[in-house]
Amino acid sequence: MGSCFSKPKTQQIDSDKNESQEMMTQCQSWIKSGDNNQHHHPIPDRYGTPKMSGQMGTPTLFHLNHSNSIDHNPSLIHEVAVGGNSKMSMDMGSRSGNNMHNGTPIQDHGKDKLVALYPYDSRAEGDLSFKKGDVMYLLDNSNSDWWYVRHSKGGTGYVPRNFVARQQTLESEEWFAGKIPRNRAEKLVLSNNLPKGTFLIRERETDIKEYALTIRDSDDGRVGSVKHYKIKKLDGDKGYFITTKRTFQTLTDLVSYYSELSDGLCCQLTFPAPRIAPIRPDLSHDTQQNWEIPRNQLQLKRKLGDGNFGEVWYGKWRGIVEVAIKTMKPGTMSPEAFLQEAQIMKQCDHPNLVKLYAVCTKEEPFYIITEYMVNGSLLAYLRDQTNQISLQASVDMCAQIANGMMYLEERKLVHRDLAARNVLVGEKISGVPVVKVADFGLARKLMDEDIYEARTGAKFPVKWSCILAATCGNFTTKSDVWSYGILLYEIFTRGQVPYPGMHNREVIEQVELGYRMPCPRTCPEQIYHEVMLKCWDKNPDRRPTFDHLYHFFDDYFVSTQPNYVPPSQN
């Protein structure tokens, strides 16, 4: 998010230093006051209150005193964002402050000031620690995942690109969520203990750059308590408006105004919805390319489970980073084949796919090191939380899994073992867990014929496989779609084994004759008939794509509600 957005115009107003200090003190008091007072205060407005235009096409303009701005007073934004001590934590190896990087002289560019969106603790020599709100200067952005920076308080090093943003861009604003689906925006504003008026602005999922304002309209977070407003553009991209009565030159102006009064919206804007910290792109900058790591950097802490290919452990890298470590049984595959398959997984980068960080292949057993998912496998989660999983949570998990598989589909990657046991569960957001597709041990890149034929003697999960895959070992994206339909059965039966009471040979015979499992008791008829049965169509060409499946579940509840509400004209 962020790179595609144009830089908002800088504004200036006449305000003295005392006013800025008063604003900062008030912000800090709000931050410290807790939930009791959050309902009554607008968001801290570091830009001041904009003047409005009452005529269509005349953009609002307001100004910012640069001597007191976050751009010229880094401590101001740090104190407001962090609300306390601005002492910086930094990797000692990065304090040299030298003027060379990779043999090239470094020059500071004032226009490339960055602000930290989240805190980051250095994990290796060469990385740089920082706190939320810290200011840095971009020195080298040739690496798409790791930027080389100089901290405003001294020291240079690498920082994860998705943890920082250029100052005075949309990406740097607390309330800007980037290009996210509508239902994810709703989850963010409905997080626990957030007040009425919690909001965000997101880029809509359209081909053209459009925005929407999402607002929480109640304190209890009941169903239907979120409102969405389209933010329209003036002709020539000269400004923005929700209603023609009020136009604004920038989105920042718009937020500042509606944080003072509702003026036709469901309520006044109070606080930006908290952003969820992204997954770090790698263990460290160094492991991005050098992802064969010494196994003595790993500590295996707790065994999580066993699989056909080995064991899975909870562990730590360098005693700091929580990871999952998959140990491969000796003789399972050659180092060359192992690395080839690991390379496929390493190249996959999606929020609903488990992230591979590193491998150990110098000796057996080989290790695969991935991100750690705190709630384990989806299969165990379904069985443990049988009575706590709502229909909304079930549908949301179906959408997340389809989203991850859509990413593989677009890259002609076939998973070959999609099942609840190979989906992992993380933390909850608004009562819905984050789920990610895992176990790429069987994944293969499809060639031009779009079919992968497995080696003779390979073992396959028959109850999750279509007939061609189970009997001939022929796998395609459409065989993954069949498996996805079985996975839906697992979700709506809370982890029941598919085809209960039937052994593998009987399953193959009955499915070949046209048998399909009945609709689970907790599954809506619409999902069963429009999705599950279509996933199990005998003709692969008639099965849906993962793109279709994702949008079906992502829009499942949206289709029963008005997409956007018009502002009141009162």
UniProtKB/TrEMBL annotation:
It comes from the Eukaryota. Its EC number is 2.7.10.2. Residues 175-273 form the SH2 domain. Residues 1-25 are annotated as: Disordered. One of its GO terms (biological process) is digestive tract development. Belongs to the protein kinase superfamily. Tyr protein kinase family. SRC subfamily. This is Tyrosine-protein kinase. It comes from Strongyloides stercoralis. The lineage of its organism: Eukaryota, Metazoa, Ecdysozoa, Nematoda, Chromadorea.
